[in-house]
Design goal:
Layout: H1 3-33, H2 43-52, H3 64-81, H4 98-119, H5 123-154, H6 159-165, H7 172-190, H8 218-243, H9 252-276, H10 282-305
Helix pairs in contact: 1-8, 1-9, 2-8, 3-4, 3-8, 4-5, 5-6, 5-7, 5-10, 7-8, 7-10, 8-9
């Protein structure tokens, strides 16, 4: 078996398993800060398996779009993962400007999620959809600016090459920290984690993601929760690739091990955030998401000033 296929299988395994493991590490980190035992690392897997055996309860006002939306969101999340370099400078699917395809696939998932939330006619879910659209309008430009900065710094146009070649450029030491912090903020925004959102809250007026899936149950709820875990894995993988010093084509086992370790480290950081601070007030959340754009803008300015061509 060639190295490409070995890395492809490793990429698939990480994609399928890491959403459960990241959630487990976050919960165990929060339990450690609270001085309690907490749930097991694989509790989210058991929760989803239990949901798959439940019969969904569908609102009488819902159309087929409501049930179909959960699976479209899941398929889009899985498709986007095929283009994302999780294990270093490698992705199973890669071509010039593939990051545009990733952005539009995630945008389609966001659109379908909002439509399925509004389909049941609940004012709470409509409110959550409006907030999702608002924060997406702040997060997506920051992501595109980040990708443009990577392209200008490396001269590459594919997702894997841009992140993989960045450390070989003279700008890496200057921009790696703001880019990593920006990706962390985007992770918290897109995966609905504290301080942007609180996945454990029970107050609908403060929810963003959770309020959009209030009417989902059974397998549809499992699909939505797994898709959210995939999105968190996507951004954790980007941070890991940004920091991973190893080339997976030259040292595949070591590169995979380092990437997995870095992704688990990101989960620990997210768990510390959720343990040491509360969810921000809603007017402050937009400013926090803006901070991601400002950090990327600083990196873009640094690349431009030092000769990157921006």
């Amino acid at each position: 078996m060639t190295t490409f296929w070995k890395l492809t299988l490793a990429h698939m395994a990480v994609t399928l398993v890491m959403p459960f493991l990241l959630v487990g590490v976050i919960n165990r980190t929060k339990s450690w800060w609270a001085a309690r035992k907490g749930p097991g690392l694989w509790q989210s897997f058991h929760d989803l398996r239990r949901l798959l055996h439940k019969r969904p309860v569908i609102s009488v006002t819902a159309t087929p779009l409501f049930r179909l939306g959960a699976y479209v969101v899941l398929v889009c999340s899985l498709a986007a993962m095929a283009f994302v370099p999780l294990l270093g400078q490698f992705a199973p699917l890669s071509f010039a400007h593939d990051f545009v395809a990733v952005a539009y696939i995630l945008g389609l998932a966001r659109l379908v999620l909002m439509l399925s939330a509004m389909d049941v006619g609940s004012p709470f879910e409509g409110m959550g959809a409006a907030r999702e659209a608002m924060f997406g309008a702040f997060a997506e430009p920051a992501l595109f600016l980040l990708l443009g900065t990577l392209s200008a710094a490396t001269g590459m146009s594919s997702f894997a090459d841009m992140l993989g070649h960045l450390r070989h450029t003279p700008y890496y030491a200057l921009i790696v920290l703001p880019l990593a912090l920006s990706l962390l903020i985007l992770l918290q925004t897109e995966a609905a984690r504290v301080p942007v959102d609180d996945p454990a809250t029970h107050l609908e007026l403060t929810m963003i993601h959770e309020v959009m899936i209030l009417d989902h149950s059974g397998p549809e709820l499992a699909a939505m929760q797994y898709a959210a875990g995939l999105k968190m894995t996507l951004y954790a993988g980007l941070i890991a690739t940004l920091l991973n010093p190893l080339d997976p084509l030259a040292a595949p086992l070591a590169a995979v091990a380092v990437s997995v370790g870095l992704m688990l480290g990101v989960a620990v950081v997210v768990g510390c955030f959720e343990s040491l601070m509360a969810r921000l007030p809603l007017p402050w959340v937009t400013r926090y998401v803006w901070l991601s754009g400002w950090l990327v803008a600083f990196a873009a300015l640094a690349v431009g000033v030092t000769g990157g061509g921006l």
